[in-house]
Design goal:
- The chain is α+β, with helices and mostly antiparallel strands.
- It has 6 helices and 7 strands, in the order αααααββββββαβ.
- It has a 5-stranded mixed barrel with strand order 1-3-5-7-6.
- Strand 3 and strand 4 form a beta hairpin.
- The longest helix is centred in the middle third of the chain and has 23 residues.
- The termini are far apart.
- The model has no long low-confidence stretch (mean pLDDT 84).
């Protein structure tokens, strides 16, 4: 005899309450990446703080709301993952940064503008995703990112341009701020003081 519709629907009772919140995982991962890139010496502080929160959430259930308890316990895992990503990225060879460190002088780049031009002490600056780079009339690499400084940047995001100028590595400021580490968070390896910026098809 065929089973009734209600009998066929019957299954295990799943108790999905209380809800579990993991909304902050992306923020913790990004914090780990930022700290590991800009100030690696602070990475242990971030991990210790996350571990303290996790241990507290394990030992005292009232420390955090029930729905956030799993998030608190996993906090050091996400933070450590972000730091690991930053350290792996730093250990990866960067041909563009190596070329800039040699300060070869004039280079020619073709790529797309990745950020709106902003005013700077040099004039204007914008991020450029490099498609090709030539040195002494020879193509030497493809890919990467640079920050372009020019007296005039009448261009917009997404424009494909040809840039001529001197390439160099970012320097640590007199105040101790490591501009190169900051740029690394935007996947930028070098600076270019442009003498010419022209749109190309």
């Amino acid at each position: 005899m065929p089973q009734s519709r209600e009998a066929r629907r019957r299954g295990p009772d799943l108790d999905l309450s209380p809800p579990v919140r993991l909304d902050l995982w992306a923020i913790l991962l990004a914090a780990g990446v930022a700290v590991g890139t800009v100030s690696p010496s602070l990475a242990p502080v971030l991990l210790v703080a996350g571990s303290i929160v996790a241990i507290g959430a394990l030992l005292w259930r009232v420390l955090v709301p029930t729905e956030w308890r799993l998030m608190a316990i996993l906090a050091p895992v996400f933070a450590a993952g972000g730091v690991a990503i930053a350290l792996l990225h730093a250990a990866t060879p960067d041909p563009l940064a190596d070329l800039a460190a040699m300060e070869p002088g004039e280079v020619v780049l073709v790529g797309r503008i990745a950020s709106p031009p902003e005013s700077s002490s040099f004039g204007y600056m914008a991020d450029l995703r490099v498609e090709r780079l030539w040195y002494e009339d020879r193509e030497v690499l493809r890919g990467g990112g640079v920050e372009v400084f020019a007296g005039d940047l009448s261009i917009g995001v997404g424009d494909r341009v040809r840039v001529e100028g001197e390439i160099s590595r970012p320097q640590v400021g007199e105040d101790g701020f490591d501009y190169g580490r900051y740029l690394a968070t935007k996947r930028i390896s070098a600076l270019v003081e442009a003498t010419s910026v022209r749109p190309v098809g």
